[in-house]
Amino acid sequence: MSLPGTKASTWYRFRNEITKLTDTSARLDVSLVELDAQGLEVGVPYTGTVADTSTWPGGAPDTKYFTAPTMYPAYKNYTTSAGNAENACFEVIAGTLTTYIISGNIVDLDGLAVESVEVSANNSGGSDTTDSNGDYALIVNENWSGTVTPAKGGYTFDPASTSYTTVIADQTGQNCVASEVAAGPAEWTAYNDCVYDVTLDQSVTNPIGQSVHYIADNVTTYNIGSGSNPGPGPSSGELVDFATGSSTGVTATLTQSGGVQWQPDVSSNWFGGYDTALGTDARNTFGGIADMTGVTYYGGSAGWYVDLTFAGLDANKAYTFATSAARCNPAYTDRGSVFTISGADTYTNASTTGVTVTSEAEVWFNAGDNYNEGYVARWTGITASDGTFTVRATHHSSANDGRKAYSFDVFMLAQQGGPVTGGPPVTFAVIGDYGDNSSDEAAVATMVDGWGADFVVTTGDNSYGSTPIDDNIGKYYSSF
């Protein structure tokens, strides 16, 4: 950049923003701005850009420049007596720090890869997230010391963390095993039917002979989209506990872009679909509670979406979310609906087997039919430190006409209980042969009694000969 002239005895701040283009090139956006006595920026910064460092004479700088750039100094004071400091410049040092890789693999107890585990190194060691193979790799500076810790909601890890001192070589094979923590029974569960029409409540039966537009007690009906009488709405409100009808304190809000349509249709064409087949995940999750008749369908152009946002969540609790949609038309094989979770701190994809998993946060399936499949998009172990997260529904890129797909028919949110834990430890003894009223039998009985055993299991002969069992055994083990 061209400097018209810098002032003597004046502080300046220099910035160099590096945008990596390739492994050996970058874009540089630099600026120099004057600072006042309080260190605040004043005036208009001088700026300049190098669009592509590979065009520099002599070629691009060393690749390490982009992984460990060093600026010196961060600030500089010039006290020249002249009005301008023509040599007022900052030294930009292409980083030559030596770096090493800490890498490994994370699997579950069955040896299967665990994706989306965040592996973090403290002391400026960076972080990485395991890929679909469970692999991760961190880059640390030479002589780095610190701790590497894996984390994912709903899992514990062995080892829980690994410490390193003065790293001077690559650390490969830093593997660990993830164990999923089973959640206890839900503390509350809330259901919502997004396309319920009270005027059609159980008015007709669908093609499989089931009454439609049924709804159980304590099920909310927040919804969105354009539609005819009675029309949709409201689009926001508190969820209630299905078991008790009590307020959960959690608010669900639906917003949309692109002009989606609310369709409760139960005509002979069944434009609104209906419940999925018996035994499917969707039927097992929502059947008899929130009817899947009706759809919220695509807007008039590509890019439409519906956002479902939850607020008021307990930051110290974990949640399970599930949703589904089914148009139930076998001819509609190309109406993929995409569901994406965002804003949560942790979550684990637990969607129906067969759903296409784009990432831990995004899944999709063909909602144009979905009768026999009964797919459900589901996440467990959802935590949100700020008490809110969002699930978006939209069309897949391969959808018919670039837009035709369906939003939420129904959804469920459950506040998970604490992890399942066992009761107090149990001590027991297993004895092959009790013996025949000897001193050896008495010694064994004394040892078992010293253990404080809760019970005794026998795997052999209980008593020998014609001696009564109480004389052979009972006098030693009658307390069990």
Describe this structure in words.
This protein has about 475 residues and is mainly β. The chain has helices spanning about 280-285, 440-450, 470-475; strands at about 10-20, 25-35, 40-50, 70, 75-80, 90-95, 100-110, 120, 125-130, 135-140, 145-150, 155-160, 160-165, 175-180, 190-195, 235-240, 245-255, 260-265, 295, 305-310, 320-325, 335-340, 345-350, 355-360, 360-365, 375-385, 390-395, 410-415, 430, 455-460. A seven-stranded antiparallel β-sheet has the order 16-17-20-27-22-25-24, with no helix packed on it. Strands 15-28-21-26-23 form a five-stranded antiparallel β-sheet. A hairpin with a 6-residue loop joins strand 16 (about 235-240) and strand 17 (about 245-255). The protein starts with 9 loop residues before the first strand and ends with a helix.
Largest sheet: 7 strands, antiparallel
**Uncertain ranges:** 60-96
Based on CA atoms alone, the radius of gyration comes out at 33 Å
Beta-strand content estimate? 35-45%
Question: In percent, how helical is the residue content?
Answer: under 10%
- With helices defined by DSSP (H or I, 4 residues minimum), what is the helix count? 3
Mean pLDDT: 83
Total discrete domains: 4
Distance between the termini: 90 Å
Q: Total strand count, please?
A: 30
Classification by helices and strands: mainly beta
Sequence of strands across the biggest β-sheet: 16-17-20-27-22-25-24
Q: Overall 3D geometry?
A: flat
Features:
480 residues; mainly beta; Immunoglobulin-like; 7-stranded antiparallel beta sheet; 5-stranded antiparallel beta sheet; 37% strand
